[in-house]
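From: lab user (bench 3)
To: helpdesk
Subject: output format question, protein + iron/sulfur cluster

Hello, I'm new to running complex predictions and I'm not sure whether the block I got back is the full result or only part of it. Here's what I submitted:
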Amino acid sequence: MSGYFSSPFPRRDAVGVAVANVIVGGDAPVVVQSMTNTDTADVDRTVAQVAALHRAGSELVRITVDRDEAAAAVPKIRERLERVGIFVPLIGDFHYIGHKLLADHPACAEALAKYRINPGNVGFKDKKDKQFAAIIETAIKYDKPVRIGVNWGSLDQELLTHLMDDNQANGSPMTAQEVTREAIVQSALLSAELAEEIGLGRDRIILSAKVSQVQDLIAVYTELARRSNHALHLGLTEAGMGTKGIVASSAAMGILLQQGIGDTIRISLTPEPGGDRSREVQVAQELLQTMGFRQFVPVVAACPGCGRTTSTVFQELAQKIEADLRKNMPVWRKKYPGVEALKVAVMGCIVNGPGESKHADIGISLPGTGETPAAPVFIDGKKAATLRGADIAEDFEKMVGEYIEKRFAR
Ligand code: SF4
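Helpdesk reply: Thanks, we reran it on our side. This is the complete output you should expect:
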Protein backbone atom coordinates (compact mmCIF):
# COMPACT_ATOMS: atom_id res chain seq x y z
CA MET A 1 0.00 0.00 0.00
CA SER A 2 3.03 2.25 0.16
CA GLY A 3 2.37 5.70 -1.26
CA TYR A 4 -1.30 4.99 -1.89
CA PHE A 5 -2.53 7.29 0.85
CA SER A 6 0.32 9.79 0.73
CA SER A 7 -0.35 13.50 0.22
CA PRO A 8 1.10 15.50 -2.70
CA PHE A 9 4.81 16.23 -2.81
CA PRO A 10 5.88 18.98 -0.40
CA ARG A 11 6.15 22.46 -1.88
CA ARG A 12 9.56 23.28 -3.26
CA ASP A 13 11.54 25.53 -0.93
CA ALA A 14 11.39 28.92 -2.70
CA VAL A 15 12.49 32.29 -1.33
CA GLY A 16 9.39 34.33 -0.48
CA VAL A 17 8.88 37.60 -2.38
CA ALA A 18 6.54 40.32 -1.11
CA VAL A 19 4.55 41.92 -3.94
CA ALA A 20 3.06 44.74 -1.88
CA ASN A 21 1.06 42.78 0.70
CA VAL A 22 0.90 39.51 -1.28
CA ILE A 23 3.64 36.96 -0.64
CA VAL A 24 4.77 34.78 -3.54
CA GLY A 25 6.85 31.74 -2.52
CA GLY A 26 8.05 30.88 0.96
CA ASP A 27 5.25 29.33 2.99
CA ALA A 28 2.53 31.30 1.20
CA PRO A 29 -0.19 29.47 -0.74
CA VAL A 30 0.03 29.49 -4.53
CA VAL A 31 -1.14 32.93 -5.68
CA VAL A 32 -3.62 33.47 -8.55
CA GLN A 33 -2.87 36.27 -10.97
CA SER A 34 -4.22 37.57 -14.23
CA MET A 35 -3.57 40.20 -16.87
CA THR A 36 -5.73 42.90 -18.42
CA ASN A 37 -6.15 43.24 -22.19
CA THR A 38 -7.19 46.89 -22.22
CA ASP A 39 -5.03 49.73 -23.48
CA THR A 40 -3.53 50.90 -20.17
CA ALA A 41 -3.68 54.50 -21.41
CA ASP A 42 -7.48 54.09 -21.30
CA VAL A 43 -7.87 54.63 -17.56
CA ASP A 44 -11.63 53.98 -17.38
CA ARG A 45 -11.54 50.64 -19.16
CA THR A 46 -8.41 49.47 -17.37
CA VAL A 47 -9.81 50.37 -13.92
CA ALA A 48 -13.03 48.52 -14.78
CA GLN A 49 -11.18 45.41 -15.92
CA VAL A 50 -8.75 45.34 -12.99
CA ALA A 51 -11.74 45.68 -10.64
CA ALA A 52 -13.57 42.83 -12.40
CA LEU A 53 -10.49 40.57 -12.26
CA HIS A 54 -9.99 41.42 -8.61
CA ARG A 55 -13.65 40.72 -7.81
CA ALA A 56 -13.32 37.36 -9.57
CA GLY A 57 -10.48 36.54 -7.15
CA SER A 58 -7.28 37.65 -8.87
CA GLU A 59 -4.73 38.38 -6.14
CA LEU A 60 -2.31 40.19 -8.46
CA VAL A 61 -3.15 41.93 -11.74
CA ARG A 62 -0.65 42.70 -14.50
CA ILE A 63 -1.12 45.60 -16.88
CA THR A 64 0.80 46.45 -20.04
CA VAL A 65 3.11 49.48 -19.84
CA ASP A 66 4.24 49.92 -23.42
CA ARG A 67 4.52 53.68 -24.00
CA ASP A 68 4.52 57.09 -22.32
CA GLU A 69 0.72 57.41 -22.28
CA ALA A 70 0.36 54.02 -20.58
CA ALA A 71 3.07 54.84 -18.01
CA ALA A 72 1.40 58.18 -17.27
CA ALA A 73 -1.95 56.40 -16.73
CA VAL A 74 -0.61 53.93 -14.13
CA PRO A 75 -0.71 56.24 -11.07
CA LYS A 76 -4.20 57.41 -12.09
CA ILE A 77 -5.38 53.79 -12.32
CA ARG A 78 -3.87 53.03 -8.91
CA GLU A 79 -5.56 56.05 -7.37
CA ARG A 80 -8.96 55.36 -8.93
CA LEU A 81 -8.89 51.75 -7.71
CA GLU A 82 -7.96 52.76 -4.18
CA ARG A 83 -10.75 55.32 -4.13
CA VAL A 84 -13.22 52.45 -4.45
CA GLY A 85 -11.39 50.29 -1.91
CA ILE A 86 -9.43 48.06 -4.33
CA PHE A 87 -5.82 47.58 -3.29
CA VAL A 88 -4.91 44.62 -5.50
CA PRO A 89 -1.19 44.92 -6.38
CA LEU A 90 -0.57 46.05 -9.97
CA ILE A 91 2.31 44.63 -11.96
CA GLY A 92 3.75 46.57 -14.88
CA ASP A 93 4.56 44.51 -17.97
CA PHE A 94 7.58 46.03 -19.73
CA HIS A 95 9.21 45.18 -23.05
CA TYR A 96 11.92 46.93 -25.10
CA ILE A 97 11.82 50.38 -23.44
CA GLY A 98 10.95 49.58 -19.84
CA HIS A 99 14.17 51.24 -18.60
CA LYS A 100 13.18 54.47 -20.30
CA LEU A 101 9.53 54.44 -19.22
CA LEU A 102 10.46 53.80 -15.60
CA ALA A 103 13.08 56.55 -15.65
CA ASP A 104 10.75 59.09 -17.30
CA HIS A 105 7.70 58.26 -15.14
CA PRO A 106 8.71 58.06 -11.48
CA ALA A 107 5.05 58.09 -10.35
CA CYS A 108 4.50 54.96 -12.45
CA ALA A 109 7.61 53.32 -10.97
CA GLU A 110 6.23 54.07 -7.50
CA ALA A 111 2.60 53.07 -8.16
CA LEU A 112 3.43 49.60 -9.48
CA ALA A 113 3.93 46.77 -6.99
CA LYS A 114 6.25 44.78 -9.27
CA TYR A 115 7.96 45.11 -12.64
CA ARG A 116 7.91 42.30 -15.17
CA ILE A 117 10.79 42.41 -17.64
CA ASN A 118 11.65 40.18 -20.56
CA PRO A 119 15.38 39.46 -20.83
CA GLY A 120 14.88 38.59 -24.50
CA ASN A 121 13.94 42.13 -25.51
CA VAL A 122 15.24 44.40 -22.79
CA GLY A 123 17.87 45.67 -25.18
CA PHE A 124 20.28 44.53 -27.82
CA LYS A 125 23.88 43.40 -27.65
CA ASP A 126 26.12 45.84 -25.80
CA LYS A 127 23.14 47.95 -24.72
CA LYS A 128 21.49 44.96 -23.13
CA ASP A 129 23.24 44.85 -19.78
CA LYS A 130 22.99 48.62 -19.39
CA GLN A 131 19.24 48.70 -19.98
CA PHE A 132 18.67 45.63 -17.82
CA ALA A 133 20.77 47.24 -15.07
CA ALA A 134 18.75 50.47 -15.31
CA ILE A 135 15.50 48.58 -14.60
CA ILE A 136 17.05 46.65 -11.73
CA GLU A 137 18.45 49.86 -10.24
CA THR A 138 14.99 51.45 -10.46
CA ALA A 139 13.54 48.41 -8.68
CA ILE A 140 16.15 48.79 -5.93
CA LYS A 141 15.48 52.53 -5.65
CA TYR A 142 11.70 52.06 -5.26
CA ASP A 143 12.04 48.78 -3.33
CA LYS A 144 10.01 46.78 -5.86
CA PRO A 145 10.32 43.12 -6.81
CA VAL A 146 10.97 42.12 -10.41
CA ARG A 147 9.77 39.16 -12.40
CA ILE A 148 12.32 38.08 -14.92
CA GLY A 149 9.97 36.59 -17.46
CA VAL A 150 11.56 34.63 -20.25
CA ASN A 151 9.27 33.83 -23.13
CA TRP A 152 9.85 31.24 -25.81
CA GLY A 153 8.62 33.62 -28.51
CA SER A 154 11.12 36.34 -27.62
CA LEU A 155 14.06 34.30 -26.41
CA ASP A 156 17.50 35.94 -26.26
CA GLN A 157 18.77 34.97 -29.74
CA GLU A 158 22.41 35.62 -28.89
CA LEU A 159 22.30 33.13 -26.03
CA LEU A 160 20.43 30.57 -28.15
CA THR A 161 22.94 30.86 -31.02
CA HIS A 162 25.82 30.55 -28.59
CA LEU A 163 24.37 27.34 -27.06
CA MET A 164 23.55 25.92 -30.52
CA ASP A 165 27.17 26.53 -31.65
CA ASP A 166 28.56 24.95 -28.48
CA ASN A 167 26.33 21.92 -28.91
CA GLN A 168 27.44 21.49 -32.50
CA ALA A 169 31.11 21.86 -31.55
CA ASN A 170 30.60 19.08 -28.97
CA GLY A 171 29.14 16.67 -31.55
CA SER A 172 25.48 17.63 -30.97
CA PRO A 173 24.67 15.56 -27.87
CA MET A 174 21.44 17.57 -27.43
CA THR A 175 18.55 17.91 -29.85
CA ALA A 176 17.57 21.39 -31.06
CA GLN A 177 14.54 21.23 -28.75
CA GLU A 178 16.74 20.42 -25.77
CA VAL A 179 19.13 23.27 -26.61
CA THR A 180 16.21 25.68 -26.81
CA ARG A 181 14.90 24.49 -23.44
CA GLU A 182 18.37 24.97 -21.97
CA ALA A 183 18.59 28.48 -23.46
CA ILE A 184 15.27 29.38 -21.80
CA VAL A 185 16.46 28.10 -18.42
CA GLN A 186 19.86 29.81 -18.77
CA SER A 187 18.31 33.09 -19.86
CA ALA A 188 16.26 33.17 -16.62
CA LEU A 189 19.10 32.05 -14.36
CA LEU A 190 21.80 34.29 -15.89
CA SER A 191 19.49 37.31 -15.73
CA ALA A 192 18.69 36.57 -12.09
CA GLU A 193 22.41 36.24 -11.37
CA LEU A 194 23.04 39.61 -13.02
CA ALA A 195 20.20 41.25 -11.07
CA GLU A 196 21.65 39.92 -7.83
CA GLU A 197 25.13 41.20 -8.76
CA ILE A 198 23.62 44.65 -9.29
CA GLY A 199 22.17 44.47 -5.78
CA LEU A 200 18.58 43.19 -6.05
CA GLY A 201 17.96 40.68 -3.28
CA ARG A 202 16.82 37.16 -4.08
CA ASP A 203 13.70 37.97 -2.05
CA ARG A 204 12.88 40.58 -4.73
CA ILE A 205 13.16 38.24 -7.76
CA ILE A 206 10.56 35.94 -9.30
CA LEU A 207 11.35 33.84 -12.37
CA SER A 208 9.18 32.57 -15.17
CA ALA A 209 9.92 30.75 -18.39
CA LYS A 210 6.83 30.50 -20.52
CA VAL A 211 6.49 28.22 -23.51
CA SER A 212 3.45 27.06 -25.45
CA GLN A 213 3.82 23.27 -25.35
CA VAL A 214 2.92 21.20 -22.31
CA GLN A 215 5.98 18.91 -22.34
CA ASP A 216 8.35 21.86 -22.84
CA LEU A 217 6.79 23.69 -19.91
CA ILE A 218 7.14 20.70 -17.60
CA ALA A 219 10.76 20.13 -18.67
CA VAL A 220 11.80 23.79 -18.38
CA TYR A 221 10.22 24.40 -14.97
CA THR A 222 11.47 21.10 -13.56
CA GLU A 223 14.98 22.21 -14.51
CA LEU A 224 14.51 25.76 -13.18
CA ALA A 225 13.24 24.35 -9.90
CA ARG A 226 16.23 22.00 -9.66
CA ARG A 227 18.79 24.72 -10.37
CA SER A 228 17.47 27.61 -8.26
CA ASN A 229 15.43 28.50 -5.20
CA HIS A 230 13.82 31.56 -6.74
CA ALA A 231 10.06 31.91 -6.47
CA LEU A 232 8.46 30.70 -9.73
CA HIS A 233 5.55 32.10 -11.71
CA LEU A 234 3.91 29.36 -13.81
CA GLY A 235 2.10 29.96 -17.04
CA LEU A 236 1.63 28.26 -20.38
CA THR A 237 1.81 31.02 -22.96
CA GLU A 238 -0.47 31.00 -26.00
CA ALA A 239 -2.33 28.11 -24.35
CA GLY A 240 -5.14 28.48 -26.85
CA MET A 241 -8.84 29.13 -27.02
CA GLY A 242 -11.66 27.51 -25.09
CA THR A 243 -11.29 23.99 -23.80
CA LYS A 244 -7.91 23.50 -25.50
CA GLY A 245 -6.33 26.29 -23.45
CA ILE A 246 -7.93 25.09 -20.23
CA VAL A 247 -6.88 21.48 -20.74
CA ALA A 248 -3.32 22.32 -21.82
CA SER A 249 -2.76 24.74 -18.92
CA SER A 250 -4.28 22.38 -16.38
CA ALA A 251 -2.28 19.39 -17.62
CA ALA A 252 1.05 21.23 -17.57
CA MET A 253 0.57 23.21 -14.38
CA GLY A 254 -1.19 20.37 -12.56
CA ILE A 255 1.84 18.13 -13.00
CA LEU A 256 4.24 20.86 -11.82
CA LEU A 257 2.08 21.88 -8.86
CA GLN A 258 1.74 18.25 -7.82
CA GLN A 259 5.54 18.15 -7.60
CA GLY A 260 5.54 21.25 -5.41
CA ILE A 261 6.75 23.53 -8.23
CA GLY A 262 5.09 26.92 -8.71
CA ASP A 263 4.38 29.83 -6.37
CA THR A 264 1.99 31.86 -8.50
CA ILE A 265 0.00 30.90 -11.60
CA ARG A 266 -1.66 32.59 -14.48
CA ILE A 267 -3.93 30.75 -16.90
CA SER A 268 -3.56 32.53 -20.26
CA LEU A 269 -6.76 31.96 -22.18
CA THR A 270 -7.60 33.58 -25.46
CA PRO A 271 -11.03 35.07 -24.76
CA GLU A 272 -13.81 35.02 -27.31
CA PRO A 273 -14.22 38.52 -28.80
CA GLY A 274 -15.98 40.49 -26.06
CA GLY A 275 -15.66 37.44 -23.79
CA ASP A 276 -15.25 37.55 -20.05
CA ARG A 277 -11.62 38.10 -19.06
CA SER A 278 -12.36 36.85 -15.54
CA ARG A 279 -12.64 33.30 -16.85
CA GLU A 280 -8.87 32.87 -16.56
CA VAL A 281 -9.12 33.65 -12.84
CA GLN A 282 -11.93 31.16 -12.36
CA VAL A 283 -9.97 28.41 -14.16
CA ALA A 284 -6.83 29.12 -12.07
CA GLN A 285 -8.86 28.97 -8.87
CA GLU A 286 -10.58 25.77 -9.96
CA LEU A 287 -7.24 24.16 -10.82
CA LEU A 288 -5.82 24.94 -7.36
CA GLN A 289 -9.04 23.99 -5.63
CA THR A 290 -9.66 20.70 -7.42
CA MET A 291 -6.07 19.67 -6.64
CA GLY A 292 -6.68 20.41 -2.98
CA PHE A 293 -4.12 23.24 -2.65
CA ARG A 294 -6.50 26.09 -1.90
CA GLN A 295 -10.16 26.79 -1.33
CA PHE A 296 -11.76 29.78 -3.01
CA VAL A 297 -15.44 29.01 -3.41
CA PRO A 298 -17.80 26.33 -2.10
CA VAL A 299 -17.93 23.18 -4.19
CA VAL A 300 -21.18 22.26 -5.91
CA ALA A 301 -21.17 18.58 -6.85
CA ALA A 302 -23.66 17.67 -9.56
CA CYS A 303 -24.10 14.37 -11.34
CA PRO A 304 -23.56 14.37 -15.11
CA GLY A 305 -27.14 13.27 -15.75
CA CYS A 306 -28.16 10.22 -17.78
CA GLY A 307 -31.22 8.47 -19.18
CA ARG A 308 -32.64 8.08 -15.66
CA THR A 309 -33.53 11.77 -15.61
CA THR A 310 -34.78 13.61 -18.65
CA SER A 311 -35.48 16.76 -16.66
CA THR A 312 -32.92 19.58 -16.70
CA VAL A 313 -34.09 20.91 -13.33
CA PHE A 314 -31.10 19.53 -11.42
CA GLN A 315 -28.58 20.99 -13.90
CA GLU A 316 -30.25 24.40 -13.79
CA LEU A 317 -30.38 24.31 -10.00
CA ALA A 318 -26.71 23.29 -9.72
CA GLN A 319 -25.67 26.07 -12.11
CA LYS A 320 -27.75 28.66 -10.30
CA ILE A 321 -26.43 27.71 -6.87
CA GLU A 322 -22.82 27.73 -8.13
CA ALA A 323 -23.27 31.14 -9.80
CA ASP A 324 -24.92 32.60 -6.68
CA LEU A 325 -22.19 31.27 -4.40
CA ARG A 326 -19.44 32.70 -6.65
CA LYS A 327 -21.18 36.05 -6.95
CA ASN A 328 -21.65 36.36 -3.20
CA MET A 329 -18.13 35.29 -2.22
CA PRO A 330 -16.52 38.77 -2.01
CA VAL A 331 -19.07 39.72 0.69
CA TRP A 332 -19.43 36.28 2.25
CA ARG A 333 -15.70 35.84 2.83
CA LYS A 334 -15.97 38.63 5.41
CA LYS A 335 -19.42 37.78 6.74
CA TYR A 336 -19.09 33.98 6.85
CA PRO A 337 -15.47 33.00 7.56
CA GLY A 338 -14.66 29.52 6.26
CA VAL A 339 -17.63 29.42 3.86
CA GLU A 340 -15.18 28.42 1.07
CA ALA A 341 -15.16 24.92 2.62
CA LEU A 342 -18.91 24.40 2.05
CA LYS A 343 -19.89 21.40 -0.08
CA VAL A 344 -23.27 21.32 -1.80
CA ALA A 345 -24.62 18.41 -3.86
CA VAL A 346 -27.36 18.59 -6.48
CA MET A 347 -28.16 15.17 -7.88
CA GLY A 348 -30.46 13.88 -10.60
CA CYS A 349 -32.00 10.65 -9.23
CA ILE A 350 -32.16 8.10 -6.46
CA VAL A 351 -29.23 5.97 -7.73
CA ASN A 352 -26.39 8.20 -6.50
CA GLY A 353 -28.42 11.14 -5.19
CA PRO A 354 -28.84 10.24 -1.52
CA GLY A 355 -25.29 8.84 -1.20
CA GLU A 356 -23.60 11.87 -2.75
CA SER A 357 -25.86 14.27 -0.84
CA LYS A 358 -24.91 12.63 2.46
CA HIS A 359 -21.23 13.28 1.68
CA ALA A 360 -21.94 16.99 1.17
CA ASP A 361 -22.73 19.51 3.90
CA ILE A 362 -26.10 20.02 2.27
CA GLY A 363 -27.41 18.09 -0.69
CA ILE A 364 -30.57 17.35 -2.60
CA SER A 365 -31.57 14.32 -4.61
CA LEU A 366 -34.09 15.39 -7.21
CA PRO A 367 -36.55 12.82 -8.54
CA GLY A 368 -35.55 11.00 -11.71
CA THR A 369 -37.97 9.96 -14.44
CA GLY A 370 -40.74 7.77 -13.01
CA GLU A 371 -39.65 8.32 -9.40
CA THR A 372 -41.99 9.67 -6.72
CA PRO A 373 -41.97 13.47 -7.16
CA ALA A 374 -40.18 14.12 -3.89
CA ALA A 375 -36.68 15.44 -3.24
CA PRO A 376 -34.97 14.46 0.00
CA VAL A 377 -32.54 17.04 1.40
CA PHE A 378 -29.60 15.89 3.51
CA ILE A 379 -27.81 18.16 5.96
CA ASP A 380 -24.56 17.07 7.60
CA GLY A 381 -25.16 13.50 6.43
CA LYS A 382 -28.72 13.18 7.75
CA LYS A 383 -32.07 13.49 6.01
CA ALA A 384 -33.43 16.86 7.08
CA ALA A 385 -36.47 17.41 4.85
CA THR A 386 -38.33 16.21 1.78
CA LEU A 387 -39.24 18.90 -0.74
CA ARG A 388 -42.24 18.58 -3.05
CA GLY A 389 -44.15 20.66 -5.57
CA ALA A 390 -43.20 23.26 -8.14
CA ASP A 391 -40.92 25.29 -5.86
CA ILE A 392 -38.34 22.62 -5.01
CA ALA A 393 -35.46 24.67 -6.49
CA GLU A 394 -36.38 27.87 -4.63
CA ASP A 395 -36.98 25.97 -1.39
CA PHE A 396 -33.58 24.28 -1.63
CA GLU A 397 -31.82 27.58 -2.37
CA LYS A 398 -33.44 29.01 0.75
CA MET A 399 -32.24 26.02 2.79
CA VAL A 400 -28.67 26.53 1.50
CA GLY A 401 -28.80 30.18 2.60
CA GLU A 402 -30.10 29.23 6.04
CA TYR A 403 -27.43 26.55 6.42
CA ILE A 404 -24.66 29.05 5.58
CA GLU A 405 -26.06 31.59 8.04
CA LYS A 406 -26.36 29.00 10.81
CA ARG A 407 -22.98 27.39 10.32
CA PHE A 408 -20.66 30.23 9.24
CA ALA A 409 -22.04 33.53 10.61
CA ARG A 410 -19.54 35.28 12.89
FE1 SF4 B 1 -27.95 9.37 -13.76
FE2 SF4 B 1 -29.05 9.34 -11.37
FE3 SF4 B 1 -26.40 8.98 -11.60
FE4 SF4 B 1 -27.46 11.39 -12.05
S1 SF4 B 1 -27.49 10.23 -10.09
S2 SF4 B 1 -25.97 10.32 -13.36
S3 SF4 B 1 -29.41 10.85 -12.99
S4 SF4 B 1 -27.98 7.62 -12.34
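A quick orientation on your result: The first strand starts at residue 17 and ends at 19. Let us know if anything else is unclear.
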